[in-house]
Amino acid sequence: MRRLGGETLSWGDLKAIVKFLPPDSALMRTMHPEAHRWRLDQYLLAETADCLRWLVWSKSDDARHGRNRPEPIARPGLESGRERVGTAMGVDRINEFLGWSE
After folding, report:
1. Cα–Cα nearest to 42, from 8, 74, 87
2. Phi–psi pair at 91, nearest 5 degrees
């Protein structure tokens, strides 16, 4: 059996170490830069911050006049936070989509 780095680490050991690295490790970020994603706790913190900023804004004069709405924190893979909101459609189109139209 061939050893890597003397007698303490085999090639199989190195393979296991690399295979189970966390997604946010430096090696994984370098090998797969397009796959960089936030962890759930990071998404939840960003969502909490967005909600708190919106709540403070909603009680202001700017909100009453519909101006200076706070921008959401940018998420990986989205050019702007507003893209995560879906497009509204009418009740007739929803019924048609669900097959409930008569």
Report:
1. 74
2. -60, -40
Q: What is the CA radius of gyration of the chain?
A: 24
Give the mean pLDDT per block of 10 residues along the chain (102 residues): 69 86 82 74 91 94 91 75 58 80 64
End-to-end CA distance of the chain: 72
For residue 82, the tally of other CB atoms under 10 A from its CB is: 10
Phi, psi (deg, nearest 5) at residue 6 = 90, -135
Q: How is residue 7 written in tokens?
A: 């007698």
Question: What's the predicted TM-score (pTM) here?
Answer: 0.48
